[in-house]
Structure formats: structure tokens, C-alpha cells
User: Which sequence fits this backbone?
């Protein structure tokens, strides 16, 4: 494996909310009462069943509780051994599945405050993503503006499968706020399950949902590019988290061919999609979905025609690699430095 | 792309000077609205006149995403005698088959009985389309071969249609579309695969169709380009479903052809499936081997629309990872995004690979001498 270097930025770690009751101290009296009197249960998404092998590495799985719920474990498993300068916390608690914008806004606010108190305040290497209630654009923007006052929040977090394609204009106030406040939009694997998790309907299996994340990222990239998000917000960065990377180039070849054919339909798109991706889109490293042969990896990175697209991630505590082998074989020392340090800092202006 | 068709051009390049090719995705059209009526019972003719066709999408006429050109077809493909593009055999011969020396042309009719909510009507229309393919096309030009179009949402009636046509040399495959009510690996479609395997016919899965699901996993997109690019994502999900439901394990002689959805994504999908299967195989014990093995052995890909990298040689890496023996050349005639046979492969491809790509693989798969 390529050698890790000290001072890297892990762009995708997942602190777990132990239980909905963990958020009670961060809810208003009204919502605390709602949660308890209505008997609301823990918000666990089907995207990440707690005992699924992919959800925690065997040696990262605690004896009790949810994988990722202990700061001490995270320090011992990744922050210390990988000698990280920063790790960006992306909570995957199932608040996006809620339909009521009021309830969702209350949960998101509590989740963000919980992250500050239970994680960011307890380790100076940790940074946070703002989870937003997308059922209401107004409330989402308000939550971004509220949390952004804390410089330790470095991005806004959305799921790759929500209610609508992410390029849709109704969502643009979120992007306006993010660009204005120097916050990239992190788009993470997972579904609100408000739509079937594949474009051809409901599959049968968890494995099918997980494989399907890559196709969801592809349709979202198309949407973001052709709707013109980056024409309107040229400084906005978006980071595809837990997306896989080996599909990027063939996907862009196809998008480019059709854009050349039917660009009259979206005349505001003034640049080739590969150029837009180079300037505005980044991808987290894990899960690295290419075969282990270095020669294949070298070809894949060459196809991307850029060494700035990929950002280091362990995807802690998910099981994407073993031991310290977070970097696939075949990366040059220069590329390792770009992936672990330079690219994350160029992407997240609030890391300093 | 649109190509100006001129008499002089044809004279300058007689077919005998061109290497023979197979075109594995040709779309024949009806010249008139009622062209299928002779093949339909009176009951269904009346039904169509009064109620029309209710699909799994809202538009009574035309597609919900307006095409880039009328009928998504080349502007130069209107037959001189009138009718829509692709509706005249003589003009198809003159514009496509003769000048390109097409030795094998596989017909994939669209806008048939597939994706219709009334499953009885669906079966009747599909059967009619199959009769029509013989009468209007394959019986009149031996280069053309038909696809058995089946009522996709009713596996049993679809299987019956396949069994009825099995052994008829006019047909070389069974045709499905990628977007259905459920992902294609689901049990409701298994009778189709069983009948196809028994008949020794590949199942082609062509991009398009409607099954009532939003065409992205995050809802309905806005634009035609999103639908077109998105066909490759729909196809990936359909193929993942076929692998993970164990269709290839259950029907080991079944061959499937991914039609008009690109192929550049195939290696990445196979790698991803393998990697995730290593972790989660206990959930799908019926998938006994790494998913990439089933794909490598049982799946073929038509080429159009070829992915188009800035550096053409990058595509060769992808073809090498898939296998030169698994690609089937296709033009998609008469559609606007037609791939011109003489331009899709740059120099530097070996003679063997070139022959396999343009003709050999298709002849072997479809059993054409």
C-alpha cells in the first residue's frame, strides 16, 4: 500500500447518535415532550443496518452500542493512528427520513448541537457538517446560517437520495447560503427513502441499496450540472462522500457526448462537464471501488485527467479496508500528498 | 447525428467495398397509426380507438421528456414516400443496410405493448408487433432479424409468447426494456428468463420504458438530457438486480444483451459489485460467485451510443476490461444519436478485434452463420 503521511484530513468519519434519547437534552420542551409522549423510536436508516458487515469493521465494532458512538474509540481507531490533523464528522442519523418539516427541523437542530457538544468540543481535530431539514428550504437555510457562526462547521450535509434531484431550482437558496458562507455541500451516500432507492424501483436487498448509491451519485451529478448550479454559484464546491470513484470518467464521457448533442435544451451550461467537475466537484476516497492491481488504478486516475478530484477518507467506522490500508496500491507520493492534505484544504476553506 | 443522404455518395461507395457489419439496434416504425390493426382482434382495435393506451406515465401521446428532434430521429431519415423515420423498408435499405453493408440487422421495435398498465392489451399488442415484424420486415429482407417483444409485466403471458415464437428463425432474441414496475431481477420476470433460456434466445434489455418509478432514485429530473444520460444508471440498477437476485445463477445458459445504455460503466459496476459482495454475501447466499464472473460470462453490450472521451485511447482501457468479445456494434438507426459505422473505432485496433466488434460477436451470439 502507498504510505500514509502525517497531518492528513479525513473527510468522512461517522459519529453515531447512541439513541434518539441522546438528543433529548438538545430539544425544546415541546419537542422533548413530543418525542416521549408519542413514543418515538430511534431513527435508524435502512441504508446502514447496525449489524451489517459494511457498517463497521470487525475490529472497530464496539462490544455494546452503535459503531462510531464513542469518541475514545474514534481517537484510538483513526485520529491517532492515521496522525490526522482534522477529521470531518458526517452524522448519518436518520433525520432525513422524517416527512414533517417542523419535526425534521427540530431534529436537525438538536443533532447539530449534539455534534458540537459531544464531539467538536471534546477533540480539537474534529470538524462538523451541518445536517439540514430539506423538507423546508427556509428552515434549511436558517439552520445553515445558525450553525455557520461556529467556524468548526466546515460543510453542509445532504443525502444523495432525497425528495428531488439536487439540481432542482427550489433547492438553490441552500446553495446560495453555502457559497456565501464558504461551506462546501457534502453529498453523502444514503436515502431518505422518499423515492425507491433505484431508478427502476425497489430492490430486495441491503446489498442492492448499497451498490445503487453509485448510480444515485451519477444522476445527481447530471442534475447539478445541467440545471446550472455551478453557473449560478461558481465558487460553490460539492463533495461526493462515500460515492465510489471508478465510475467518474466513463460517466463524464457519456454526459459530455449527450451535452454536445442536446445542449440547446440547457443553453446556460457554458462549459464541458469535465471542466465543471474539475473546478467544483470532489470525491472522497473510500470506498475505493477498483480492483487491487496498481496498473488499473493508474489508468483510472489518468482517465480523470486531474489529481485534484479525490479527498482522503477512511469512512470510519464503515468497513472499506483493513488495517492501515486506506490508500490503494499504486498512488505516487505526490498524489498521496494531494489526496491527504492539499486537496482537502483547497476544498474546505474553513479548515485552518 | 444527421448525415446528408445523397444519391452520388451512394454511387461512389458501393457496398461491396465495405467490410460487412452487424447492426444490433435498429428501430422499425409503423407508417400509419393503424398499421397494427390487421394483427389485432376487433376488441382491441375498439379499445385503442376509445380509450387509447394507458402507460405507467401521464402522457397520452408522446413522451414526458420531449425529444431533441421529432421521434428522436435523424431529420434526413424521413422516407420519400412519407411516414415517420424508420417506417419504410426500401428507404432503410437505401440509407442504412446497403451503403453500410449490414449483413445482420437486429430489429428492436419501440412504442409497442410494453409498459402498458392493461396487461391483456399489452400481450395483444406485443403479439401483433411480432407478426408485423415478420410481414413487413424480416420476410422481405433476409438480413433483418426480429426481437420477440413481450408483455413485460406479466411474466407468464410473456413466456407463452416466447414459447410460441421459439424455433422461428425470424427471431434472434427476446426484447425487454430497462425501466419496469420492478427491477428486472425480481421474480415476476423469471418466467421470461426461463422461456428464453429454453428457447436458446438471448434477452436484450433496451434502454427506456416506464414502470411508474421516478427515473432517478432522488425523484423526477427536469430535462431530456437527464433521461438520456440516466439510461445508463437505470441499466446499471437493472443489471445489479439481475445479478443479486441470482438470475444468472438460476439460469446459467441465459445470455443478456445491454442495448443502448453505454458500456463504459460496466467495469466500475462489476468492481463495485464484487467489493460489496465480499462484505455482504451472507445476505445473498444464492449469489455463489463474484458478480463480475456472471457478468463476464453471460452479458453482452451494444456499442451505441459509444462513450466519447477526449482521449479516444482511454476507451480502449475500458473495452479491454470488458473484453473485445462482448461488444456488439449498433447504430440505433434512425435515431438522432446514430453512431456512424466508419467513425466509431479509431486506427490502432487489431483486425481480429475490429472484426469481432463489427460482426463476429453478433454472429456468434445470435447464431447467424
Assistant:
Amino acid at each position: 500500500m502507498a504510505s500514509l503521511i502525517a497531518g492528513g484530513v479525513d473527510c468522512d468519519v461517522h459519529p453515531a447518535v447512541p439513541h434518539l434519547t441522546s438528543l433529548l437534552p438538545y430539544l425544546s420542551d415541546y419537542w422533548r415532550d413530543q418525542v416521549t409522549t408519542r413514543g418515538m423510536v430511534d431513527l435508524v436508516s435502512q441504508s446502514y443496518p447496525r449489524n451489517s458487515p459494511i457498517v463497521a469493521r470487525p475490529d472497530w465494532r464496539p462490544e455494546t452500542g452503535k459503531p462510531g458512538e464513542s469518541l475514545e474509540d474514534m481517537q484510538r481507531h483513526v485520529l491517532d493512528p492515521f496522525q490526522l490533523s482534522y477529521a470531518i464528522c458526517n452524522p448519518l442519523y436518520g433525520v432525513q427520513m422524517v416527512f414533517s418539516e417542523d419535526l425534521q427541523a427540530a431534529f436537525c437542530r438538536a443533532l447539530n448541537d449534539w455534534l458540537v457538544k459531544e464531539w467538536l468540543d471534546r477533540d480539537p481535530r474534529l470538524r462538523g457538517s451541518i445536517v439540514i431539514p430539506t423538507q423546508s428550504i427556509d428552515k434549511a437555510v436558517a439552520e445553515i446560517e445558525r450553525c455557520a457562526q461556529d467556524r468548526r462547521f466546515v460543510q453542509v450535509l445532504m443525502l444523495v437520495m432525497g425528495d428531488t434531484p439536487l439540481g432542482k431550482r427550489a433547492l438553490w437558496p441552500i446553495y446560495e447560503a453555502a457559497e456565501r458562507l464558504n461551506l462546501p455541500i457534502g453529498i453523502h451516500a444514503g436515502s431518505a427513502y422518499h423515492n425507491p432507492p433505484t431508478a427502476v424501483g425497489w430492490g430486495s436487498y441491503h446489498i442492492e441499496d448499497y451498490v445503487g448509491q453509485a448510480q444515485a451519485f451519477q444522476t445527481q451529478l447530471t442534475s447539478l450540472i445541467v440545471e446550472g448550479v455551478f453557473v449560478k454559484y461558481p465558487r460553490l464546491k460539492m463533495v461526493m462522500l462515500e460515492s465510489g470513484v471508478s465510475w467518474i470518467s466513463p460517466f463524464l464521457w457519456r454526459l459530455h457526448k449527450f451535452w454536445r448533442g442536446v445542449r440547446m435544451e440547457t443553453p446556460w451550461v457554458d462549459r464541458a462537464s469535465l471542466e465543471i467537475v474539475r473546478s467544483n466537484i470532489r470525491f472522497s476516497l473510500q470506498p475505493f471501488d477498483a480492483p487491487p492491481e496498481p496498473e488499473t488504478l493508474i489508468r483510472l486516475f489518468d482517465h480523470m485527467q486531474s489529481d485534484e478530484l479525490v479527498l482522503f477518507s477512511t469512512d470510519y467506522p464503515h468497513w472499506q479496508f483493513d488495517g492501515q490500508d486506506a490508500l490503494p496500491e499504486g498512488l505516487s507520493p505526490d498524489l498521496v500528498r494531494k489526496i491527504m492534505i492539499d486537496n482537502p484544504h483547497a476544498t474546505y476553506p474553513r479548515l485552518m | 447525428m444527421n448525415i446528408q443522404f445523397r444519391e452520388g455518395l451512394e454511387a461512389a461507395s458501393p457496398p461491396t467495398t465495405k467490410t460487412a457489419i452487424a447492426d444490433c439496434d435498429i428501430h422499425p416504425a409503423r407508417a400509419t397509426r393503424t398499421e397494427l390493426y390487421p394483427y389485432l382482434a376487433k376488441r382491441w382495435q375498439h379499445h385503442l380507438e376509445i380509450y387509447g393506451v394507458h402507460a405507467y406515465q401521464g402522457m397520452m401521446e408522446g413522451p414526458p421528456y420531449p425529444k431533441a428532434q421529432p421521434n428522436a430521429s435523424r431529420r434526413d431519415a424521413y422516407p420519400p414516400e412519407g411516414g415517420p423515420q424508420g417506417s419504410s423498408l426500401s428507404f432503410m435499405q437505401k440509407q442504412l443496410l446497403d451503403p453500410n453493408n449490414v449483413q445482420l440487422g437486429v430489429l428492436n421495435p419501440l412504442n409497442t405493448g410494453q409498459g402498458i398498465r392493461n396487461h391483456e392489451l399489452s400481450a395483444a399488442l406485443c403479439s401483433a408487433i411480432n407478426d408485423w415484424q415478420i410481414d413487413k420486415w424480416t420476410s422481405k429482407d433476409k438480413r433483418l432479424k426480429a426481437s420477440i417483444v413481450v408483455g413485460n409485466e406479466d411474466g407468464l403471458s410473456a413466456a407463452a409468447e416466447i414459447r410460441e415464437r421459439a424455433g422461428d428463425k425470424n427471431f434472434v432474441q427476446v426484447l425487454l426494456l430497462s425501466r419496469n414496475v420492478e427491477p428486472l431481477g425480481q421474480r415476476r420476470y423469471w418466467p421470461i428468463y426461463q422461456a428464453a433460456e429454453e428457447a436458446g434466445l438471448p434477452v436484450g434489455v433496451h434502454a427506456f420504458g416506464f414502470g411508474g418509478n421516478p427515473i432517478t432514485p432522488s425523484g423526477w429530473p427536469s430535462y431530456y438530457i437527464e433521461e438520456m444520460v440516466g439510461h445508463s444508471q437505470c441499466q446499471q440498477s437493472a443489471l445489479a438486480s439481475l445479478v443479486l437476485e441470482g438470475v444468472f445463477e438460476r439460469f446459467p445458459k441465459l445470455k443478456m444483451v445491454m442495448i443502448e445504455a453505454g458500456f463504459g460503466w460496466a467495469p466500475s459496476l462489476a468492481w463495485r459489485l464484487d467489493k460489496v459482495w465480499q462484505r455482504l454475501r451472507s445476505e445473498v447466499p444464492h449469489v455463489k460467485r463474484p458478480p463480475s464472473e456472471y457478468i463476464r460470462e453471460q452479458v453482452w453490450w451494444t456499442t451505441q451510443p459509444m462513450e466519447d472521451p477526449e482521449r479516444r485511447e482511454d476507451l480502449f482501457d475500458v473495452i479491454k476490461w470488458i473484453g473485445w468479445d462482448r461488444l456488439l456494434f449498433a447504430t440505433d438507426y434512425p435515431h438522432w444519436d446514430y453512431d456512424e459505422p466508419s467513425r466509431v473505432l479509431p486506427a490502432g485496433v487489431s483486425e481480429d478485434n475490429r472484426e469481432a466488434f463489427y460482426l463476429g460477436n453478433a454472429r456468434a451470439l445470435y447464431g447467424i452463420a
Notes: Chain B touches chain A through 70 residues (CB under 8 Å). DSSP finds twelve helices and eight strands in chain B. Residues 259 and 343 of chain B are 19 Å apart (CA to CA).
